[in-house]
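Q: Structure tokens for this one, please.
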Amino acid sequence: MKSDVKVIGLTGGIGTGKSTAAEFLKNKGIAHIDADQIGRDLTADGSPMVAVLDSIFGPGGEFGVKGNPILTPEGNLDRKALASIVFTDIDKKLKLDEVMFKAIVAEVNKQIDTYKEQGPCGIMIDAPLLFEAGLHEACDIVVLLVSDMDVRISRVCARDGATPEEVRNRINSQMSDDERKKLSDVVIDNSGTVEALEEQLEKFFSKFSKNS
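A: Here is the predicted structure, written as tokens:
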């Protein structure tokens, strides 16, 4: 195993351009681990995690609501039903995070080990909830993307068709940039153009490559 391969944590709140940054770094040859995709895969139809979640948040579970199933008639996860249960109760939301984060971290670590065998120039953990999940502990360096609030709202409204108020509420429900900055090694402001972002990422990658 090439244990000297460095791990980059890439994070940022909604609308900061994390996907664009991840694509740029992927094109530089950095292996990409998508924590959000892992979360979706873990709860895909027929996956073992669906049964685990049902045992906890289903009608018969400790955190469930009687008469409120979280599975479809086919036995798949009804994401809206689960959300209606956990997002109205902080204790239930924390329990869901605990269960999902543990499984996601385990899969991320497995993928890190696999990529280290292949010897890429670096490995990137792409995760909006990098700190909340504790994934920053697996990183050698953490890169945080930030953007002006108005820019973030405009981007997400255009992308998702959401209202400014809905986007603002989503942003306010996440960890603040000030909190993230305290835990990050590199902060990149992506309030401008894609070209400006790529210029900053190019400088980061050049320095990262020299130190790897």
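A few notes: The beta strands are 7-12, 31-34, 123-126, 141-146, 186-189. Residues 35 and 127 are 5 Å apart (CA to CA).
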